[in-house]
Amino acid sequence: MDAPLLIKLQTEKAERFLVEGDEMVRQHHWDMAANRFYYACYHMVHAVFITRGIATKTHDGTLTELGKNFVLTGQLDKKYGRFYARMIQLRIKADYNSVAEVTADEVLEMAPLSHEFVESLRKLLPTT
Asked: pLDDT tens across 24-40, in order?
């Protein structure tokens, strides 16, 4: 599959997952909202990675490459590096922790930042 199509598909998935995250917030499904917001960010990161020929195999690898290639170079604000690291932890809590639930406060803090993060990454995509 060619890069422009992959970028388009990753971007569309990111946008769809933001909408799904917002819907989960309205329904007070905090674990699912955290999952959708994380994956919206993840897919947009990978859309940008495709434009630069960056490939990762793990979620932590994605965080590392984001920091090395975009945060440390000043292309992306440092707050977004911290945000993405926090989103990984929140997604793990949402998906795997049966003792501690993701809280409304956690999601309501991350929801607008997820939208900001995706939009900041969109600005790094080539214009067509």
From this structure: 999 999 999 999 999 99
Torsion of CA 16, 40, 109, 116, to 10 degrees: -90
**pLDDT by residue (tens digit) across 87-124?**
999 999 999 999 988 999 999 999 999 999 999 999 99
In terms of phi and psi (left: phi > 0; alpha: psi -120 to 50; beta: otherwise), the region of 36 is alpha
pTM listed for this prediction? 0.95
CA atoms of 126 and 98, how far apart (whole Å): 41
Which of these, 53, 48, 51, lies nearest to 66 by C-alpha position? 48
What is the reported pLDDT for 5? 95
Question: Cβ-count burial of 98 within 10 angstroms (0-12 exposed, 13-18 middle, 19+ buried)?
Answer: exposed
- Per DSSP, helices labelled H in 27-127 are 30-52, 59-66, 78-96, 104-122
Q: How distant, in Å, are the alpha carbons of 1, 4, 126 from that of 88? A: 28, 27, 26
DSSP assigned state of 41:
H
